[in-house]
Amino acid sequence: MSRIEGMKDLRESMDKISDVDLTNIMKKWTEYVRGEAVDLCPVSPLPGGGQLRQSIMTDVTGHGSSIEGIVYTNKEYAPYVEFGTGRRGAASTDVAPGINLEYSQDINGQAAQPFMYPALNNNQTRILRGITQDLQKAMRD
Known about the structure:
By secondary structure, this protein is α+β, with helices and mostly antiparallel strands. It has one domain (9-41, 49-140). It is built from six helices and four strands, in the order αααββαββαα. It has a two-stranded antiparallel sheet. It has a two-stranded antiparallel sheet with strand order 3-4. The model has no long low-confidence stretch (mean pLDDT 82).
């Protein structure tokens, strides 16, 4: 008969993990990304400028055994700010699902001013480290 050592510790750790509120941890780091996107979002100096920045929102939802945090905006022109338009925009005509800028390739356009992608991409290491630390802290408490 074989004996597995450490099962008691494993069970205790698993019990602690099941008690951790992952939703609050995900909300914290989704809000962090939102804050970065807000900071990076360009604002028009014209009256009424800043609507895109103010429209950046978050949503955290659970899907069975997984949890998802989303940072988004509902402004229709957001992809054009993020990816640009025309010759000065993104090099590819397939910049995002459902967005094809091919029609504008022969006109001068707006330069890309990314704010969503860098908000996540530039902070991946910090976010993963933070989530790990938050999980470890929650398991100790």
